[in-house]
Amino acid sequence: MSKLPTALQKLALPVIGSPLFIISNPKLVIEQCKAGIVGSMPALNARPAAQLEDWLAEITETLAAWDKAHPEQPSAPFAINQIVHKSNDRLEHDMQVCAQYKVPIVITSLGAREDVNQAVHSWGGVVLHDIINNKFAHKAVEKGADGLIAVAAGAGGHAGVKSPFALIQEIRQWFDGPLALSGSIASGGAILAAQAMGADFAYIGSAFIATHEARAVDGYKQAIVDSTSDDIVYSNLFTGVHGNYLAPSIRAAGLDPENLPVSDPSKMNFGGDAKKAWKDIWGCGQGIGAINEVTATADLVDRLKREYRQARERLQLG
Length: 318
Ligand SMILES: Cc1cc2nc3c(=O)[nH]c(=O)nc-3n(C[C@H](O)[C@H](O)[C@H](O)COP(=O)(O)O)c2cc1C
Hints:
Elements: E1 15-17, H1 26-34, E2 39-42, H2 51-69, E3 78-83, H3 91-100, E4 105-109, H4 114-122, E5 126-131, H5 134-142, E6 147-151, E7 157-158, H6 164-172, E8 179-182, H7 188-197, E9 201-204, H8 218-226, E10 232-235, E11 243-246, H9 247-252, H10 272-280, H11 297-314
Parallel strand pairs: 1-9, 2-3, 3-4, 4-5, 5-6, 6-8, 8-9
Antiparallel strand pairs: 7-11, 10-11
Helix pairs in contact: 1-2, 7-11
The chain binds flavin mononucleotide.
Organism: Comamonas terrae
Family: Belongs to the nitronate monooxygenase family. NMO class I subfamily.
GO molecular function, one term: oxidoreductase activity
C-alpha cells in the first residue's frame, strides 16, 4: 500500500465510484460518499456550464449536513472529472468553479496538463489521472499528477487492452503513490484482488449504472442486469477512441455489433456530438455478470462491503 493523501485515507471500502458521462449526477455522488466510497462525476455532466456551481453547492452542503448528523460515519470525499482534451472548451470555466469549492479530488482524463495539476494543488486538492499504459503513466506523473488510475482491458467507456496484472505490475515497479485499478470490478472479491495486485483502490463504473440514483434510462439499467461479458463490444467507432459498449444498444441503433467499421481517430470529439453518441450507444464494462438487480447505491455498496469482508475471511486476512 502506498502513502495516501489525507483525502483518500479514511474510506469505508477502498473504492472510487468512477465518473460516468451523462449518467453521474449529484444524487449518485452523494450516495456514494455517504456510503464511504469516493463518489465522482464529470464536470461536463452539468449542462449548461452554470449548473456546475449549483451541483457543487448541493454536494458540499448535503455532505456537510450528513457529517454533522453522523460523526461516527463520515462521508468520503468526492471527485470531479475534467476531460483535458482540446475539444473541451469548458475546461477553464469548470476549473474556476472547482477552485471556488476547493474540490478535494480532480480526476483528469484524455491528456495530462501541468497547469491543471498546479491549479488543483493550489487549493489543496489531489489529482488522479487515468492512463491505459505505462508510458502514459510516466507522462502523467512527470506532469504532476498525484496518483494514477490504471484503466485495464474490459473497462466500461474508453478502455485499454492491457491485462490488469501487467499494468499494475509495471506501474508499481517505479510508482509508489496512490494507484486505482479500473476495469470489470463489480464484486467485493475483485476489490480485494485489486489490492492484492498492488493497487490501493478499485475504480468502479458500470456497476453503478444499475442503481436508482444513476441518470440512465430504465432500458440501459436492465440491459446491465441482463447482459454478461459476451454482450460487450470493443470499438472506436463512436468517439474515435476505443471503448466498450453494450451490443444490444448497437443493434438498436441499426448497426451490426459483429461487423462495425473502424473510425478515424482524428475525428475524436468530446463536445456536443459525444453526448449524442453516448446517449444511444451504451458504454459498459465486462464485469456486469455480477450485477443481478437494479438497486439503491447504498445497497450496492453494502453488498460490496459484505463480499469484501467475506473474501478477506476466506483468505484468513481477518
Ligand atoms: C457509460 C460510461 C461513461 C463513462 N464516462 C467517463 C467519463 O466521462 N470520464 C472518465 O474519465 N471516464 C468515464 N468512463 C470510464 C469510467 O470512469 C471507468 O474507467 C470504467 O467505468 C471502469 O470500468 P467498469 O465500468 O468496468 O467498472 C465511463 C464509463 C462508462 C461505462
